[in-house]
Batch of 3 targets.
Target 1
Amino acid sequence: MNHCTRNVFAGDWNFLLRFQRKTRTKCHQSSGTALIYHTRGQTTAARQAPDDGKGEKPPLRAIDLARKLRQERANTRTAQPNVSPQQKRVIDLKRFSLQLQNIHPNVLAKHLKRGVLYQDQHVVVVNKPYGVPVTDASGETTISSVLPVLSKMMDGMRVKSNSQLLPCLGLEKEITGALLLARSEEAAKHVLELNRSNQVQRKYWLITVGVPVPSEGMIDIPIIEREITGSQPHYKMALSPVYRMNDTGSGLTKVRANRQSLPAVTKYKVLDSHAGCSLVELQPLTGVKHQIRVHMAFALTCVILGDHKYSHWSKLAPQKLPEGVLKKLGLEQSKSRHLPLHLHARQLTLPKDGDGIISVVCPMPKFFTQTLRRLNLTFPKEKDETATL
């Protein structure tokens, strides 16, 4: 190979090297540009692509949640038919009761703490709300289930706290008012001993359909539980009198008492009456199940307003109210099933440990006072009288 040939080959080789480096540079720039464009395209597509349900949903912002709740409330108001103020109150009360049964125990404990009426080193008295049971085996939220939380709140949320609260004298699920709690097992036993010796006095206020005659007296008729047969088999508490009218109707004849019956004594006094309804104060001297409701319904024939269980003997049905009462309450008969039981534990009195007396007056619930106003019933005023839910 001569010198010229070597120069040609050398020139070609140098050209090829320069061409290769230039091509690599262009290809690298071109691929880089394509990569950038591809990445942007993927990002844009990801933003515009609809959610197919397989990927993660974007987090819900607080402002979006607030808008959603406002829209749901607006839809509910639009869909809800026109109702009277009393019907709206009944619906609100029913919703409030269901909420209390299903809310977190801490929330119910805070509600009870706001309703503390009296406390000392031995006992606590709280304002029990409507529709919440004191104890229940069904698993729903109860007063007893939140007492550990309530005790801790009342003790200042201290980490090392041995305080406790125990139910002493219970109230039925539908009854509102003063509920007595003990701070220890010894205090609970002491309260039960006081109750057995009739040293604990509990007075109830209730609204009846009908006017008791006489306006003041004492009911002393034993009570027994009976089975009701028929299309709706169930059990009810009933009267088991030890006297009956004789054959001539001129006097009473004593009969043998049923072994399963329980002594039941109730003092009562009519505080006010108007248009076929009454506000009555009762003081049970015994503690039989449903004693007040049975004595009012079957002994005085004046059923408590909202007592659907004892409004009928042989069936389970909503309370049937007179037209005049329905008109005053602003209700239709078909809506009477929503009426709550108007039975309130008004006053609790018991001896104080050492010396003195504990006397607590519990404010009436708001639905109770509203019904009193609608029925034009008045009551004696006490100090610090307020209406709470």
Note: Confidence is low (pLDDT under 50) at residues 2-13, 25-50, 383-389.
Target 2
Amino acid sequence: MASPRGNRRASVPLQHAAAALLLALSCCCCCARSDPSSPNHPKVPAVIVFGDSTVDTGNNNAIGTILKSDFPPYGRDMAGGANPTGRFCNGRLPPDFISEALGLPPLVPAYLDPAYGIQDFAHGVCFASAGTGLDNKTAGVLSVIPLWKEVEYFKEYKRRLRRHVGRASARRIVSDALYVVSIGTNDFLENYFLLVTGRFAEFTVGAFEDFLVAQAEWFLGEIHTLGARRVTFAGLSPIGCLPLERTLNALRGGCFEEYNQVARDYNAKVLDMLRRVMAARPRLKVAYIDVYKNMLDLITNPSTLGLENVEEGCCATGKVEMSYLCNDKSPHTCGDADKYFFWDSFHPTQKVNQFFAKKTLDLCYQELL
């Protein structure tokens, strides 16, 4: 039988080993919390969103405009049950899916939504406004938030963020965030081609494209100066293939090819501008999202996503309805939105938004993250 003294000698190395192991584990845990490359420290601390209804998560609910979607059947397929949040969709938008995929909350909150505060916005925030555009006059058509005001809200957000997390942490969140920008469609369909602002008399369509691209360049310069470093910028979709435009083109049938050509011309100019901006601002990375190709691929080959209707929206007749015309009184709204590309006559379904979000993320991992 071993002596008590012998037991004490044997236990000393074990005690030291246990203490060393605990110290090592403690150090590892501390390093994991402070190391930005560790899984516990998100590579992207926040998703910050600018633009129009394609990414507006509810800001228009809080302003005096008729362009709203905070009522049924909007939001009917949200996870957890029907919830019309002000998103122009039956569910979530691309920034929501992007946020969730990056390990952040599954919904990006609207900056003007009183249900959220700076503790929420520290992980993601949306300044977008349905109906807005690169041209200030576009926002005036339906009294929505102009792009310059979105930038002002961003400045205010930065001040609030500094007070909430401190200057250094706020700077890191702003510089490491992923910025999602989707804007431009309304400048043509709600402004120039609708003949309501006078821009059609002031500019040829080519000159108007140049004007919008210059506005986009100004915007990117502004947010870069304010700290943005990683930005996704969406080009125009084939806007002549939206259900509303197909309806207006009913005499000829199909997509309105003249509008699609404008979208292609504008997108080419945007690409040239982005190359120029990144050359002049080496710390700014911008990934161009080819929405035109992504959308056209699905319209041409709908079965790849299990779609059955790419010409009409699910809501009401799907030909002209959006906002208040897309309501729960219509007997024609479809039962399964997952079979449709469009939710209303202008906006994609949640299923298509998730597809677009994946395309965006794939590009982000290649070029930004």
Note: The two ends are 64 Å apart (CA to CA).
Target 3
Amino acid sequence: MAAGGGLSRSERKAAERVRRLREEQQRERLRQVCDDPEELRRKVRELAGAVRNAKFLVVYTGAGISTAASIPDYRGPNGVWTLLQKGRRVSAADLSEAEPTLTHMSIARLHEQKLVQHVVSQNCDGLHLRSGLPRTAISELHGNMYIEVCTSCSPNREYVRTFDVTERTALHRHQTGRACHKCGTPLRDTIVHFGERGTLGQPLNWEAATEAASKADTILCLGSSLKVLKKYPRLWCMTKPPSRRPKLYIVNLQWTPKDDWAALKLHGKCDDVMQLLMEELGLEIPGYSRWQDPIFSLATPLRAGEEGSHSRKSLCRSREEAPSGDRGAPHSSAPILGGWFGRGCAKRAKRKKAT
């Protein structure tokens, strides 16, 4: 170290080399890789064999399965955090226009055929529920944008809505502005933001997720960077010796921290992989129909006087049902301020130490 406590020239050069190396590693991890068509098809055949032979298959899903529904992911090239870290503005998407993707519908069919036993999702978009997957078969670890709850009622009283209930909520601020129809207690959303610990029974369903992980002999990860899921040891059977842990199959265009543990890594878009997988398994992928969307039968209507409690566009079974002001409404270009897709989902910027 140079006199006066500063870094010497050689130390500064070494620090600069380390900084550049870290930046290069970060760029490499963000880089998207696609298997060529023949290689991808070969890998899908291997995955199909694993699905057929699995005794207990659990699927872990992340934001990558919803990008085909025009819901941005987080760490992709155009992901929410990627853009925020570059200082670019993130615009809101009209989530009422989002519908379950080919991947969502494929998973629902695999569960129906008893090839998938449980689904553990990081997503808050409610698309697994809307695909027809039974509530008992889903653990939405970070909540569901369509569900608000009363935590004063025992058991907690759920209110499924046909609109995003998180308009007024954010990190450590969960009241939605509506009240329980039974006891009058303010309702709260179900979203688990970074820096929070999820304590609700439903829709998080941690008990079922943990039980499924303990029984799993095969885990299929779809569209998740696994940077968050890796922090949940209960999902990876880490108390078991490596030879007894589930076989892991990962579908992602980018590097994940579990790649070295995977029996197979498929570099492809989730919809492309699932299309090929369902063909290999000889299963038809059901089409999504709003008329059959379970959310409409599960939903609790607003009471008189609550109509003005939100300004988010509501789901409709058909465009004819939409209020005249809603029809053809363009996606908002306003910056995201609140809700599950706003302030609460963004990591706080690290403050520079005062010098």
Note: Confidence is low (pLDDT under 50) at residues 74-86, 324-337, 343-355.
